[in-house]
């Protein structure tokens, strides 16, 4: 089973950017924890981060061909990128939306996700731990779809 | 470690009510899975379900005295019970909000949670599996606050 | 055939409360007229009134097991109780929403019913007579569903 | 006692138009049932249908002179015809608004009636049966106003 | 003269809950000060607190029979309980709405009170002192209505 | 100089309809006063009233050919008839909008006129006297455009 | 009979300010025409212009003692000065609101008048001529109130 | 194949009305071009224009019996006539909505069409040429539905 | 201790203006009662009323130098004077906002106070009695700040 | 004559993505039909598709130098890309906006195009056929501008 | 060249008022820096501050006669004084709007300026330095208009 | 000191694009003036322009490492790019937002900047001169932060 961990704009700065909100662990460190749990669960985690909306759209299209599920932190694109929403809807594998911070406890504009209606589910506010939970959820969704 | 699994209105009908949306497993079955994972993680799960907003407020107050964290599915109260919001904010233990269905893919009024801004985090759309993820997250939060 | 007449908050004050709006007949008197028409139509009318949202949710769940249809005046809960809405949607028998006064000719907040979208139909502004019309409508709906 | 059954735009297509929403009985059939119940109750039912707002206004003015009450299904005019609203308000006989379908369970724009605030009451979602209930209600209103 | 001091949800936690906002005195202490001023003014103060909306509605109905005025802190119900609003409007004795904190200086949702339009007046932001002012106001209102 | 006095829906009921709002003088009486002032000012007043939007549109088109200015009371069409707005904009003679009652002191929906932005001016709340003022204004506008 | 012509902010610039919108005649010239018509109608016109909201409030209070009616062009205060609205409502003589330009054909914020609901009537878009019409209307209102 | 070209209010003034927006060709000229292209494509074009909403509703009902498709320019009715919307939805032949001007580049109220959601498609801003494109599209839709 | 009683526009008319809403006691009479209670509490009450926003701003600035607290009835400025809001925020002494009538039971625009978020507290709907309560509250706030 | 056919995000998936909405023909097939009609009309069609907003902006700038008109399907960028809107407005050749599906019959957010106000015209809901119509329209616009 | 530095309400408190937001330099100090830069640039700076809207309107009118440009910090009037907006629009010299703090990073109501649409430009958030930049900009605008 | 001049989409067309709004000087010319003033002030100006949101995000990240301040004209991204907003917030150097035209005097959608709340300040409407002012402001901010 292959699962894509897709991270959007400014997440390359993780650990450096506003640590009070996003924590002090860098993206590399988070990725390693995911890989490690992936090994435990028999899953290969692929990683991709970009600040370019178009590259994220392209990568989602590829994932529709190559991976079994997606864990997607769209960063600020969460709130306006209908192009990403359409890309998620256009491919047939499940996508779990994830946010490090509790977007519902921050600025008004962060309370609304244009991706959420086409995602399978959403996890927010649980920090890097959220990625690990999302990985378990993704595995469970893929297994269920294979059974069902 | 003791964690309260708190379920709001109409969740007693789980398995019978609109199975297309909420799945066919009953609340008892879901509780058993939680207990089982709790055993594995060395956590006691307490369960309480009520259709009465006041009883949920009372139980949250008790939890503030007796438990270490709360996993809370407020059902329809999610969208208007500021009394529950205030109760969650009034106690000092972390609360994880959970929804079986993807509330962002349903009717407009379900897109807004009045509880979310005072919760630690939110998990939605991942079915009964979501409770198990929430249990892991709750354990992690309690451990972190004990360390921290 | 058994039909539940369910009345929400403050309707116990009927006849005493703002008679200019709600009329001078008490709830008991209205219930007697319903029973009387029920006898004529061969229907047993069950009555329940509560000022407690949770008790109304519980009673709706019971009705799903024991009665064939519901005539429901949710009082002020009409305008915000998504818990009652979910309870009506969760049971499989038809529910007719009724209001004594014309809610569309009163304060702005009374113009919107959160129950209406999941009710079979709505009767408003026709005073206690409305309950009798609702009883005829309920009988007709139950018969049709039995035929169909 | 004379009661006008007034039907607005597209109701001439009843039985042919979107039968999933409006049922398969034609307007003639519905009118016959009303006449029949009218006979039983000692009431003459007059019928008028038009797709022209102006003709409906004119007919309401006449009804103010010739009939004792009105049962009015304004069709799509429900949602914007302030001219009809003013006509209903301008005459002194009671008017009961009726809708075949549950307008509160359909498109957003159908949730608001500009006629309702000046109608005596409203019945919606109960199909052709609604006209028969409205007839009973109208008779009751006329009798009460004669008594009172 | 008898005056009911009615407190809504989470006010039982007074002194413990968010002391930065609500102060550090407990509800018992506040009640004692009210009783004491009541004695001075020749008024008996009755006390009732509940986290249950239905119990508050019931108690308001009783007050309509037994007390001369009400001092009501509806807590979070301030912002959505139309059932409480209707209960206040349904009884004929005056009701003074009170809030410990300045609700207009807090979250947006706290700026709107559904109770205020049917209350005699409102006092907010003056802490426990507000209850004592409300007691004086209530006495004054009752005396005026007896004179008038 | 020829000036059209154009009256919209329900104005045929003037004098009979809600005299508290619209006064007790009938349309004929008002027309006579206009004719009389017209004679004084050397102007022929033409009169047309209809409850049919389409007839009003047609009459506006004719006025564009035959009259020099229009005094238009669109009745309830004021608030939604973009067809009338377009008709007023499509002809090249000036149009003065008039309302008997003060539309800004009535229901919310009457506060907005879709005709006003394309009218030369508006007179409201001054009763039948308003038509006489409008006649003077219309004469003045026509004279000015002839001079200019 | 004495009638106050009250002009608000920036109207002292009339004739100089944006002549495309407000015309090229100065305020003095307009006042002279009003005086002249006043002489003809046997009315004394008093004039007051100020850019200071407080002075306009003061002058309205005086008018309540000294004049029989007011013709008021509130300028930009039209759109936000609730203090002026309250002053108009506080005095018992009629007030006619006037605007030189058609405020409904200009920027969005000019479409709403906070004065209009408490004025007797409104004349807009008819240029300086509007003051003359307002004078006739004011005389007519004062005479009617003296008769009535 | 028969296709109805249906034009709404004020389109009879085409060529005379605001030529800067609607062009200088009259409706007759446009109809001739349509007939001519119809001959080329083997299609008979029927024409109907009315300023009366009711006549347009009636003509749509007839078209449902007699024609194969409709090209409909609803003029100002585009923005509020739910009666026309329901008529379009009530008949089973396809309807293409057309506008001469680019309605999205004009006044705010023209940006919203109540007809569009029930039309097959929409062409706007391309002038009289748009009718010719619509004719090609209509032919294509009818052929496809015959094949399909 | 010195406390400023600051009254805004139209309050000079108290007793004369709309007595049904504001009562029949004049401002002088109310001031005397305040002075009298002030004497009892050992407080000097200073009085200032103006219809000029700028004078109220100036007086607030002075109060920041000379008085210990402010009781402020901003009249209609309540709803739009951000200049007064900023003045209240700019000085360091506490300000209690007061309204004679229940502003939440009147027109929509009166439900919102731009001053409230920067006031210490608010008292509304309790008539002239409210000033006396505010005086007690102000004394209590000043004493507390001196202690604290 | 050279015309650019510009396609935005996710249109590379045409034929594979949600065929119920977008049809089963791939982009290549659609392009071939356009080329073929272009040959017939003596027009060269250039094609460009990208999921990157910036590349579309760049290509529009080039088109301003190299092509005579643009047929632009902005995909999801339709609803938020003001950068594309500015690019269309910045170049002097005409642009026809096109959508395969009827965007007015889908989710709320798709009803609004930020491109439309600066486009020459819009065609929506007519499937791949729409591109062919747009080509005819573009040719006609270019010819007209050359003549004019 | 003469340039007016116009400051609105509460700016006389500069240096004393909320120094965290507005800085600790007083208005005099800021004025001196402006004069000094003015000397350098060969410009005379005139200064006027008032808490009275009417005085600011009057001073703007004078500036239209006596100065060449205006640098205007309207303080809280920024957000509602349409009288000031009209005064700025009524005079023909350029006006640069300035704010010490970043109004877009503060309370919602401060995000909207009613002056901005008629100002030449706006500088905000750059503290007292902003006045110096505005002076340079004003000089540049005046020179350009003299050249142009 | 190094300062980045960052320009967003379509600014490469400066001088060619809508010169009535943006002026006739090209970007190169503007950059030269900035360099020249930079030399005078002892500052190196770096320049970057892109139509690609992702490249601007990347460049902002680099600037956080390499430059001391940023002058940023986000073009149309101003109104929706939360990704750019987050990038500005993520780096610790100050950013001054600049617009050539007065965005508050143009289309509604341009009145709101999502960047402004995280910028140090904003300059708009002052044309290319604005960049030079921004350079002075940036130097001043950097110096102050070095001192502070």
Tell me the name of the CATH homologous superfamily of chain A: Dehydroquinase, class II
Give the helix/strand class of chain A: alpha/beta
Strand order of the largest sheet of chain A: 2-1-3-4-5
Whole-number mean pLDDT of chain A: 95
Q: Give the largest interface pair and sizes.
A: E-I, 26 and 26 residues
CATH architecture annotation of chain A = 3-Layer(aba) Sandwich
The termini of chain A sit apart by: 16 Å
Low-confidence stretches of chain A: none
Could you say which overall geometry of chain A the principal axes of the C-alpha atoms support? globular
Under CATH, the topology of chain A can be stated as Rossmann fold
Kindly estimate the percentage of residues of chain A that lie in beta strands according to DSSP.
Answer: 15-25%
User: Biggest sheet of chain A: strands, sense, closure?
Assistant: 5 strands, parallel
Total helical elements of chain A: 5
* CATH secondary-structure class of chain A: Alpha Beta
**Portion of residues within helices of chain A:** 40-55%
| Domain tally of chain A | 1
- What radius of gyration of chain A results from the CA coordinates? 14 Å
The helix-strand sequence of chain A is EHHEHEHEEH
Query: How many strands in all of chain A?
Result: 5
Please give the oligomerization state of what you see. Answer: homododecamer
